Amino acid sequence: MSIRIVRLGTARAAHEGLRLGTVRRPPRGVPKRDFARANYYDLWLPELAPSEPLVHVARSATSEREWRAFRRRYLKELATPAASHLLDLLAALSRVTNFSVGCYCEREARCHRSVLREALRDRGALLVEP
């Protein structure tokens, strides 16, 4: 059992399980009834997405220093009680079922999901490595 970190909208892997969208906004131009069918997500968890101001910080980060600043601020958001409890839940679920979490960004290395992967790993989650 494990968590797969994915790019939303891509083909699902075999035995991927439920796909959780950790994004601030639903996909544009896609009817809600088609989110799962179009491989975006089955369930939406915006509580694990960076805040709107922090999304702008991540998108504008051009240097390693700016990316590290985003990472530090996002980890602080993930340390809030609501996000922390969700991370604990996902880590525990990774030991009994397969599921995935993701967002729309093309490159995981410059996406909040790379930080989310780290936060889940730190909580003992079982992860499929890239």
Structural features, described:
It is globular, with a radius of gyration of 14 Å. It has a 4-stranded parallel beta sheet with strand order 1-4-2-3, with helices on one face. Helix 2 packs across helix 4. The chain has 4 helices and 4 strands. With 130 residues, it is an alpha/beta fold. The protein has one domain.
Could you give a quick summary of the protein structure above?
With 130 residues, the protein is an alpha/beta fold.
Descriptive key words:
130 residues; alpha/beta
Tell me the layout of helices and strands:
Elements: E1 3-7, E2 18-21, E3 43-44, H1 52-60, H2 64-78, H3 81-93, E4 99-103, H4 112-122
Q: Average pLDDT, to the nearest integer? A: 97
Number of domains: 1
Question: What's the β-strand tally?
Answer: 4
Which outline best applies? Answer: globular
